[in-house]
Amino acid sequence: MQLRGAAALLIGASGGIGSAAVHAFVREGSDLVLAAPQAELAQLEALAREARAGCVRAVVVPTDVTIRADIDRAVATAIAEFGRIDVLAYIAGIGSSPSLCDDTDEEIARVLSVNLLGCARAMHAVLPMMKAQRRGAIVNIGSIAGEAGVMGVYSASKFGMRGLSDSVRREVRADGVRVTLIEPGFVRTPMNAAMGDGLPGPEVVADAIVDAVRHPRRVRVVPKRYLAPVVVARVFPGLLDMIFGDARIQRRLNRDARAERSSRTP
Predict the structure, then answer these.
(1) Does 226 qualify as catalytic in the annotation?
(2) Is residue 264 part of a domain?
(3) DSSP string of the chain, one letter each residue
(4) 233 inside domain
(5) Buried b / exposed e across 216-254, counting CB within 10 Å, b at 16+?
(6) Which end of the chain is more exposed for a tag (fewer CB within 10 A), N or C?
(7) d(CA 190, CA 187)
(8) Crossing angle, helix 118-133 and helix 68-82, to 10 degrees?
(9) What is the pLDDT of residue 258?
(10) How many domains does the chain have?
(11) pTM here?
(12) What is the pLDDT of residue 11?
């Protein structure tokens, strides 16, 4: 697919990976609909101004992905503005505690609603247009936590996204729509702030999104150094049971998350 002049809907455009994706699509000359929660409107407007300065059209749509009507409005705006949707990038996502027992019921429901149900609803909303035009690229941002179940309900949501992407890819292949799942490892975003500045930047994920539109694949792991752990997780799941089932590993895995949670408690 040619990206210059393509109409791209980016859901979750205001975060670390989302902002990097906006810049990547602007460099390619794509017209953009930028969606993120109302609370992040200022970031969206700033990104839209940057996009317009880069000589592309950009529209902002405040969107809560837990509300279907908001997703439908973002899709309708893209169609009204550009007459089509060539690209959907679902970048929205939130984390959870590594331990399921540390999360409240409300937190569990929100992680699944944002990470998995939001993705399903976004694809459900754009597919009629993409199927009618007989072309389209969908890129979902999963995680290597969707390959190795070690991050509580967050892992569950990303495992679900992997299955959903596989299913929809096969469903719409004959309609000319391609679905790619990007699985990042740890990259430098607010979600991983406690890991310091030594991580790769979110641009590595943004570049993978653009490449997936041009050259669709089933799945792509970034950075590439995470390919080996993903293979181990798939081929030797019992090994992960032994490692992460160790009480000492679990304590270390949950230590920072629990400390952060305690610091937020009044």
Answers:
(1) no
(2) no
(3) ---TT-EEEEETTTSHHHHHHHHHHHHHT-EEEEEE-GGGHHHHHHHHHHHHHTT--EEEEE--TTSHHHHHHHHHHHHHHHSS--EEEE-------SSGGGS-HHHHHHHHIIIIIHHHHHHHHHHHHHHHHT-EEEEEE--GGGTS--SHHHHHHHHHHHHHHHHHHHHHGGGTEEEEEEEE-S-SSGGGGGG-S-SPPTHHHHHHHHHHHHS--SEEEESGGGHHHHHHHHH-HHHHHHHHTSHHHHHHHHHHHHHHHHHH--
(4) no
(5) beebbbbeeebeeebeebeeeeeebeeeeeeeeeeeebb
(6) C
(7) 9
(8) 30
(9) 81
(10) 1
(11) 0.92
(12) 98
Residue of 154, 155, 157, 257 marked active site: 154
Domain membership of residue 212 (yes or no) is yes
Q: Measuring CA to CA, how many Å separate 222 from each of 36, 39, 230?
A: 24, 29, 11
Chain segment 129-158, per-residue pLDDT in tens: 999 999 999 999 999 999 998 999 999 999
Question: Residues 158-196: pLDDT tens digits?
Answer: 999 999 999 999 999 999 999 999 999 888 666 655 555
Spatial separation of the C-alpha atoms in residues 15 and 205, rounded to whole Å:
12
Q: What is the CATH number of the domain that holds 214?
A: 3.40.50.720
Q: How many CB atoms lie within 10 A of CB 113?
A: 17
Range of the domain at 202: 7-226
**164 falls within a domain:** yes
For residue 53, count CB atoms less than 10 angstroms from its CB and return exposed for 0-12, middle for 13-18, buried for 19 or more. Answer: exposed
**pLDDT of res. 195:** 56
Band of the pLDDT at 70, cuts 50, 70, 90? very high
The alpha carbon of 243 is separated from its chain's Cα centroid by a whole number of angstroms, namely: 28
Backbone angles phi, psi at 223, to 5 degrees: -60, 165
